[in-house]
Each structure stands twice: as C-alpha cells, then as structure tokens.
Amino acid sequence: MSEITGRTGGRAEATAVVHESYSFACMRCGHGWEQSFEIEHHRDADGHEFVRYVAEGHVVPSPLSRPTCANCDSHVVRIMRPGRVASVRGPAHGVHREPPAEQRHWHLSDLLQALHLQRRAS
Predict the structure, then answer these.
(1) Residue 8 burial by CB count (10 A; 0-12/13-18/19+): exposed, middle or buried?
(2) Where are the domains of the chain?
(3) Cβ distance 26 to 32 under 8 Å?
(4) Which residues are bridge partners to 36 per DSSP?
(5) What is the pTM of this model?
(6) CA dist 90 to 67, 77, 99, 114, Å?
(7) How many CB atoms sit inside 10 A of residue 19's CB?
C-alpha cells in the first residue's frame, strides 16, 4: 500500500484508522523524540487504497519515508520502536517512567550512554 497525501476524502471516510508510535534519534545532532500517528486507510474514487498519516491533528508525510530532525533539519534519523527513547532515558538517569506523551525530546548522547549501560548489565 502506498502513502499518498493530498488526496480528497475526510477522516470520516477512512476505512480503518491505526495508531502507531515511533521513537526517533537524529544521528547528526543527537536530538531524540517520540511521536504518535494515526494512520488512516482510504480508498480513492477508483477503489485504490492509500494511507494518510496524521500527527497532532495535521496530515503529515510518512515518518518512515524521510524523517526530518526538528532540531537541525537532517534526514539522518534512526527510527526505533515506540517507547525506546523514554525507556532508555528513564533507567539511566534514575527517572521514574512517565505516561507516554505525544512528543518528547532527548539527546542522542544520553540515549547511547543508557543503551551501553543496559547492554553491559545484561
């Protein structure tokens, strides 16, 4: 199924809506964040399927196609499973885990240090 933005069809016309979350880390500046998306599945007038990604109420490009760092505009971004940024940040710094937010920001150096500590402990 391909992602096509700019097609007609409102959210009410979606055949299915899937909620997905991802963690991101910029490999250039170290900025880390998490983002949740609603992935709307639609059919156009010819019956072809397409999806629309919605974040915070706005239609956005697929986060998997060419993610962009909000801090430095780099496209060298690592995509990880949801909660990865929060789970790495919390244990390494003695912070209690908070409920997931729509978007969080951390630095790659913190993430890499915590991942290294987790690997050494196991």
Answers:
(1) exposed
(2) 11-121
(3) yes
(4) 21
(5) 0.59
(6) 24, 21, 12, 9
(7) 9
Which neighbouring-strand residues pair with 14? none
Neighbours of 49 (CB within 10 A): 12
Q: What is the distance between the alpha carbons of residues 17 and 117, in angstroms, rounded to a whole number?
A: 38
- Which stretches in the chain have pLDDT values below 70? 1-12, 84, 86-122
Closest CA to 88 of 121, 113, 120, 122: 113
Instruction: Collect contacts of 45-54 with beta carbons under 8 A, ≥24 apart.
Output: 49/1, 50/1, 50/2, 50/3, 50/4, 50/7, 51/1, 51/2, 51/3, 51/4, 52/3, 52/4, 52/5, 52/7, 52/14, 53/3, 53/5, 54/11
Counting DSSP H helices and E strands in the chain, the numbers are 2, 6
